[in-house]
Amino acid sequence: MALAPRVNVLLVCGGKYHDFDYARLELLKLLAEHSRLRVRVVEDYREASAFDGADMLITYTCNVLPDAGGQSALQRFLERGGRWFALHGTNSVLQWAREHKAWEAPRSAPDFMRMLGSQFIAHPAIAPYRVDISDPEHPLVRGLQTFDADDELYLCEYHGDNHALLHTRYAGAAPGFTESDWSRGDRQLVLYTHRHGNGEVLYCTLGHCRGHYDMQPLMAEYPAVERGAWKLPVFHEILRRGIHWAARL
């Protein structure tokens, strides 16, 4: 009896201000639950040939943007029908605005953000928030119940037609960011799908993690170890379903 075909996974995991060692290991453990998945790990989008050989893509990054070659590789991946499971800070690019003494989200990669369907703009202080089910009949979230996540609540700018699967609402301020007024209380997507060309993106904003050394050189020692939604069984269920979706298992 012939074996089921191998699935080539490209995991992009790297950047700033997060514990990428922790996130990388946790994702690899989940990927290892499927013997058909063979994983290559890179830190950024520079090696364009890696995308051409991938059957599915997972990204967990922060302040990592593709250059022209990397963007073309991502475009080719999606145009040929690839599935991209993007996590947490993939849509985040930050720079320090000295005049405001705050973080700002420059609109310096519009095509990349349009591929993803969103761009991170700000978040309030980490605190538990309610996550609601947007489309209870969708197989990626069917059977899940409303839950609380002690994670970064991503406040985003959205692009294109996103299909909401999980959402939350926030009305208040985001101190420390130049775009700090979020008092309108608009719905913020926590999990959504976004079609681009023949391919599709599944974006999950959950998954913040940070250790004592991950804010260097801004500070020598970050005071707390943060594990965000990684502590929740429901987040691991979402990750498993996302991997299953991206791999077409």
Please outline the helices and strands.
Layout: E1 7-15, H1 20-31, E2 37-42, H2 48-52, E3 56-62, H3 68-79, E4 83-87, E5 95-97, E6 102-104, H4 110-116, E7 118-122, E8 127-133, E9 147-151, E10 155-158, E11 162-169, E12 172-173, E13 181-182, E14 187-196, E15 199-204, H5 233-247
Parallel strand pairs: 1-2, 1-3, 3-4, 4-15
Antiparallel strand pairs: 5-6, 7-10, 8-9, 8-11, 11-14, 12-13, 14-15
For the record, the count of structural domains works out to: 1
Structural category is alpha/beta
Number of helices: 5
Low-confidence stretches: none
According to CATH, the fold-level topology is Rossmann fold
Tell me the name of the CATH class.
Alpha Beta
Distance between the termini: 18 Å
**Biggest β-sheet, characterized?**
9 strands, mixed
- The residue-averaged pLDDT reads 96
Q: What is the CATH homologous superfamily assignment?
A: Class I glutamine amidotransferase (GATase) domain
Rough outline: globular
Textual characterization of the structure:
By secondary structure, the chain is of the alpha/beta class. It is built from five helices and 15 strands. Strands 2-1-3-4-15-14-11-8-9 form a nine-stranded mixed sheet. The longest helix has 15 residues, at 233-247. It is globular, with a radius of gyration of 17 Å. The two termini are 18 Å apart.
